[in-house]
Every structure is written in C-alpha cells, then in structure tokens.
Amino acid sequence: VVDSCCTLIIDPGVKVYFHGGGGLWVYRGGHIQAEGTDQDHITFQGDRLESEYADLPGQWDRIWVNDGPTDNTFYHVDIKNALVGIQPQSWIGTPGQPTSANKLVLNNVSIRNCSAAGILSENYRIQSTNLLVANCGQYCVALTGGGQYNFNYSTIANYWSYAVRQQPAFILTNTFTDINGANQVRDVETSVFQNGIIYGSNTNEFQLSFDSQLSPDFHFNNYLFKTDQATDDALHFDQPTIYRNQEPGFVDPNNGDFHLPLYPPPTPQVFAFGKGIVTSNDDVSNFDLDHVFRSSPDLGCYEAVQQ
Q1: What stretches of 69-210 show up as alpha helix (H) in DSSP?
Q2: Per-residue pLDDT, 282
Q3: Angle (CA) 252 257 262, round 5°
Q4: CB 54: neighbour CB atoms within 10 A?
Q5: In the prediction, which pLDDT does 264 show?
Q6: Partners of residue 244 on adjacent β-strands
Q7: Contacts of 280 by beta carbon, 8 Å cutoff, 6+ apart
Q8: Which one, of 28, 150, 32, lies nearest residue 90 by Cα?
Q9: Residue 277 near residue 221, CB atoms below 8 Å
C-alpha cells in the first residue's frame, strides 16, 4: 500500500514481482511515480519465473490507483499476467464519488495477458501516448463513469484464446455502480482518441454505452475499428479518417505480436500504414513504443518497420 501523503518512486529497470493474490494499492491521497526509460523498462509481473508462467494470465491481482494530490505517472512500463492490469478509480467512499481531480498518465506502456481487464477505469482522467493493451479475458480497456481521456497512438487488441470471450476489447460508458449497488451517471468530459487501433478475434470489439441523462463529449479520429456498431455520427467520429473492419496488418496477432511489418513498397495487407496524423512535436509522440521514429505516422502504438 502507498498510503495517503506518501509517494512511491520506482526507478528505471526495476522489476516488481507479486505473489499470487498480491497487488499494489495507491490509496487515496497517495502518489506513484513509475518512470522507466526506453532502455530500462519497469516491469510488474507475477513471481513465478518458470517458462510455463511467462504468459499465463491471472497470476496476481492488480495495480489499484485512487485519486491523489498530483498526476500518477507510468512511463516505459510493462504490466503482465495480472487479474486486472491497472485500475484507476476515484475513492468509492467519497460521497458522490466525483471524477478524479488529477490524471493517470500512461506513456510507453504495455499491458498484456490479464484474466479480467487490462485497464478498468472508474471516474478517472487518463492521458496516454504509445499504449498497448492486449489479450484479456474480458475487456482490454473499460472506461466507466465520469472521466476525461486523451489517447494517442494506442493498439487495443484482444485475441484471448483461453476461453470464450463475450465482451468487446474496448468499452466507453458514462455509467457505473456505486458502493451501495446503485447505478450512477457521470459526465464524460472533452476526450480525444486518435491514431489508434481497436481490433481482435470477435465480430465486435468496440462498444459505446451511454445513459441519455448526460451528453458525453468525445471524439475519435484516425482510428481503425473492428465493429458492427455504428460509427457514422460525425459529431463523435471524424468520418474521413475512420476505418472499419480492415485487417490492421499485425505481424502475428495470435501469438501476441502486434507490430506492423513494412516490405517496400508497403503491401495492402498493412492497412494501418500511413493513416496516422502528426499531433505534436515531442519526444513521446515522435517515437513509437519501441522508440522507433515516426517518419509517416501509422495507426497504433507501433510504426511499421523493415522485417
């Protein structure tokens, strides 16, 4: 537990191992700063190091982050084989459970092989660049209740193979169930999702579910979806840059490789190639999850490279 008024700083290259059922709780008023580098990632995983456990889901519980005094930061971090990868959630005991005042920042983060969900958010603000969330037993990313989201260069891909999966890879909803079991509705404040891929092995991997009491404010642009849901609402989807049900061109999705290959000239099979947009000129967005320079941005967290 990171208690109130305390800060946990995790240095580059640190590996955190959890025993079965264990996890990390950043309690309300606490703060975590897990900032690795492109050379020295920080890793959160289970403590079984035998080869047969390398990709086995559900070996430990989760990273649970409540609202704190400042932004909680995860840079160059790999989270794998948990029940829930990371659960940002405003404190359930606060009357009204408002949306967090500060953000969870996920830059250059991968979350894989979680038996329930990769990101399970409730009434929280999330900012992310270069995010991979892959292969979870239910949702890869579930954004619930109130929140404000800025996702840039994300690959959300669910090819879960351990059992039948009913849930889509991604859900955005303005409802949640409070501590008393009552259904609550909160504002989704101005949110932007861009340069991303939401894909997987199910027919539909994308879901929006909103209570009409409030009008959510969100926008998708330069995005590829696998979905049978409508995305023709121009208020929320930039129609010229929304793509549906085209294979992204992952190298080997069934074996967890979500890179984009490039064989000059670009082959039609790599649909995500060149369909991104430059959003800013900074060291985070200029490079992909592998620290490859984005010469002509592709969709997702990886830039297509020569194989």
Answers
A1: none
A2: 83
A3: 70
A4: 13
A5: 54
A6: 225
A7: none
A8: 28
A9: yes
Length of the chain: 307
**Token code pair at residue 73:** 């930061």
**Count of CB atoms situated within 10 Å of the CB of 80:** 23
d(CA 44, CA 305): 28
Contacts of residue 80, defined as CB under 8 A and 6 or more positions apart, other chains included, come to 43, 44, 45, 55, 110, 111, 112, 113, 114
Residue 241 three-state SS: helix
Low pLDDT (below 70) residues in the chain: 263-268, 306-307
Pull the structure tokens for residue 15. 């590996």
Residues facing 184 on adjacent strands: 176
For strands 42-46 and 15-18, give the pairing.
parallel
Residue 72: partners with Cβ closer than 8 Å, 6 or more residues away: 26, 31, 32, 33, 65, 88, 102, 103, 104, 105
DSSP 113-126: EESSEEEEEEEEEE
Contact 2, 26 (CB under 8 A): yes
β-strand pairing of 63-65 with 175-177: unpaired
Dig out the tokens for 126 from the structure: 């999330």
Between CA 156 and CA 197 the distance in angstroms is 6
Structure tokens at 100: 């967090």
Q: Is 160:203 a contact under the CB 8 Å cutoff?
A: no
Rg (CA), the chain: 18
Per-residue confidence (pLDDT) for residue 29, from 0 to 100: 96
CB 225 within 8 A of CB 206: yes
Say if residue 234 is exposed, middle or buried (CB neighbours under 10 Å; 0-12, 13-18, 19+). exposed
Tokens read off for 258: 């979500």
pLDDT attached to residue 257: 96
Name, in order, each residue with C-beta under 8 angstroms of 263's C-beta and a sequence gap of 6 or more. Answer: 306, 307
Q: How far is CA 2 from the centre of its chain?
A: 23
Whole-number pLDDT of residue 307: 56
